[in-house]
TrEMBL record:
Residues 1-30 form the signal peptide. This is Choice-of-anchor A family protein. Keywords: Membrane, Signal, Transmembrane, Transmembrane helix. The keyword Isomerase does not apply. The chain crosses the membrane at residues 339-359. It holds the Pfam family pAdhesive_15. Residues 38-295 form the Choice-of-anchor A domain. The keyword Membrane applies. Residues 299-325, 360-384 are annotated as: Disordered.
């Protein structure tokens, strides 16, 4: 076998040493298979640590660790959910006293399916369909333990690095907060409550099937936008997209739904008194310290997103957005890796040129000036 010419040998040695010429891209790592992410709350549409005061409808199961005032009529568990993780198909759990309409009243609690258990009863028993029962007894849910886990989860999500941009724009005279993410697994948007409250609409644009977490900072959230739109996975009433969207309120003690608002996605507000608008609705699970919803509806869309996807801050920091919310991280990691790759290739090219020229001089042929190269790479982490 003929030996390689000096130039070729030098170039081959350089490239082989770098491992770039022979390397093949690593196969994409599939997103981890995620089970229930919200603990026992995954089986309920309303999951409350303390008291709840409700009338209207909840399509899923309802659980409250304190008292429940349903005296004006409340319909529960009307949407079939064979995969619910509620213990023994208990679709109503009240740790304290269930206050229901008086005997003969036209307003009362109706369980469309499942069974009910409550610590005490004030008024008539709830109407239970399908031959099941409602009984007094101990709660099958350990509310203090579940809320310790939920509060820890809320803090952990709040500490995630940003993945996506948060921008405020104007469209036809209306202020729009746009959340734009490109990660196919998990997009994270840190945004202040005041920023959301300043808008008439929130628009969320992420890849179809991606999980989205919106970390809303601030102790009080009220008078926010009535319209929240998602761009992907809609199936009629938007349950598919709503099932992978989580609104996290780690600091809030008060969360008030705006008038006539429809919130797609689950609400994680484990420290907050949450008040739903009488004409509003939520498509997802509501987790709250206490809950008031006089006339509002909660539609069943269990959270099916995956919160265990690891994220690395592109700049080694927390990755959270500033108050201007002009950009909350973008695709910083991808840009950083591309910049590193281009810089490495540029260095290799310059080294290869120098070796090529040096090999030529060593042979005494065609003296060449060392080649010079310049590659201008700008890595923008999306934090403009």
């Amino acid at each position: 076998m003929r030996p390689l010419p000096p130039r070729a040998a030098a170039l081959a040695a350089l490239l082989a040493g770098s491992g770039l010429l022979l390397a093949t891209p690593a196969p994409a790592v599939a997103a981890p298979a995620c089970g229930p992410q919200l603990g026992a709350a995954d089986g309920f549409t309303e999951f409350v640590l303390g008291d709840t005061d409700r009338f209207g409808e909840s399509e899923g199961a309802v659980a409250a660790g304190g008292d429940a005032d349903f005296t004006r009529g409340f319909s529960i568990a009307g949407r079939p959910a064979p995969t619910d993780s509620v213990p023994e198909d208990t679709t109503l759990v009240v740790g304290g006293t269930l206050r229901n309409g008086a005997a003969g009243s036209s307003t009362f609690t109706v369980l469309e399916r499942g069974t009910a258990v409550y610590g005490g009863l004030d008024g008539r028993p709830p109407v239970v369909k399908a031959g099941l029962e409602a009984t007094e007894g101990g709660s099958p849910v350990d509310f203090p333990a579940e809320f310790r886990s939920l509060r820890a989860l809320s803090e952990r999500l709040d500490a995630l690095p940003a993945r996506g941009s948060v921008a405020r724009t104007t469209n036809d005279g209306a202020t729009v907060v746009r959340l734009l993410g490109e990660d196919e697994d998990l997009n994270v948007f840190p945004v202040s409550a005041s920023r959301l409250e300043s808008a008439q609409k929130v628009l969320i644009v992420v890849p179809e099937g991606a999980t989205t977490v919106v970390n809303v900072s601030g102790p009080v959230y009220e008078n926010g936008p009535a319209r929240v739109e998602t761009s992907t996975g809609e199936d009629g009433d938007g349950r598919r997209a709503a099932g992978r969207l989580l609104w996290n309120f780690p600091d809030a003690t008060t969360v008030t739904q705006p008038a006539d608002a429809h919130w797609p996605g689950s609400v994680l507000a484990p420290h907050a008194a949450v008040e739903l608008d009488p004409d509003g609705r939520v498509t997802g699970t509501v987790v709250a310290a206490s809950l008031t919803g006089k006339g509002s509806d909660t539609l069943r869309a269990p959270f099916t997103g995956c919160l265990d996807t690891p994220l690395t801050p592109p700049d080694g920091g927390t990755g959270t957005a500033g108050e201007d919310d002009a950009a909350a991280g973008g695709d910083g990691a991808g840009l950083h890796l591309r910049a590193l790759l281009f810089a490495t290739l540029g260095a290799l090219a310059a080294g290869a040129a120098a070796l090529w020229a040096g090999a030529g001089r060593g042979r005494g042929r065609d003296r060449e000036r060392p080649g010079t190269g310049h590659l201008d790479v700008t890595a923008d982490g999306g934090r403009g």
